[in-house]
Design brief:
Blueprint lengths: L1 H11 L7 H13 L19 E5 L16 H14 L6 E5 L15 H6 L1 H10 L5 E5 L1 H12 L3 H6 L2 E5 L11 H21 L8
Parallel strand pairs: 1-2, 1-3, 3-4
Helix pairs in contact: 2-5, 3-8
Length: 208
């Protein structure tokens, strides 16, 4: 019950001023494809303060919460742990999905090139709503492909901001399989990338 009421509480806050614009974009994307669900951005984020975008390859089911996550529960825990260690506060980072749409009750399979391409316009619309974001950390193969497509568009907005993309692995599934030492290595690599992204965007790293 507690989880359900927490979810309702989050949903009731999805149009707060700090996230309204991006969640209204989610509504319009969902409206353009009847029968789909487009997960929202959690109200702990902030469109005006966002400097870094975490772009997730959203293969698998949509999170029951109705919000964008890094993947399964393990992935979400890894992402939170990483941000906590770096002192990367939620208002400075925002998640987005490669292919914003999910069909309720059906997990997304491996994306086709067309499905990845379909995510380009939504990503550009999203970028226009977060004016201070100048870094994308692309998690997983699909996110890397979409980031490459984005850089080839030659949209003036990208050059004006000096947009930089980093490519890292996905936080869940086979991409994160392996012995604990190997998983720690993956996390350490991500730590370096996010620390660099923070330095690039003028964010101070946590001490220690």
């Amino acid at each position: 019950m507690a989880t359900e009421s927490f979810r309702e509480q989050l949903l009731s806050r999805r149009y707060e001023p700090n996230v309204a614009a991006v969640n209204e974009l989610c509504d319009s994307l969902q409206g353009a494809k009847p029968g789909t669900q487009v997960p929202y951005v959690d109200p702990m984020h902030d469109v005006d303060e966002c400097r870094i975008i975490s772009l997730f390859s959203n293969i698998g089911p949509a999170a029951p919460s109705g919000f964008i996550t890094a993947g399964d529960d393990d992935a979400a825990t890894r992402m939170l742990g990483l941000q906590w260690k770096l002192g990367l506060r939620p208002e400075f980072v925002m998640p987005w999905n490669v292919h914003p749409w999910h069909v309720p009750g059906e997990p997304n399979g491996k994306f086709t090139p067309d499905q990845i391409s379909a995510g380009l316009k939504p990503l550009l619309k999203f970028l226009a709503l977060v004016p201070r974001a100048s870094v994308i950390v692309a998690h997983g193969t699909e996110a890397n492909r979409l980031a490459n497509m984005l850089l080839k568009t030659e949209v003036p907005l990208l050059w004006r901001r000096g947009l930089k993309t980093y490519k890292v692995r996905s936080l869940s599934g086979r991409a994160f399989a392996g012995a604990p030492a190997r998983q720690q290595q993956y996390l350490d690599e991500m730590h370096v990338v996010y620390a660099d992204a923070m330095a690039r965007t003028g964010l101070a790293k946590a001490a220690g």
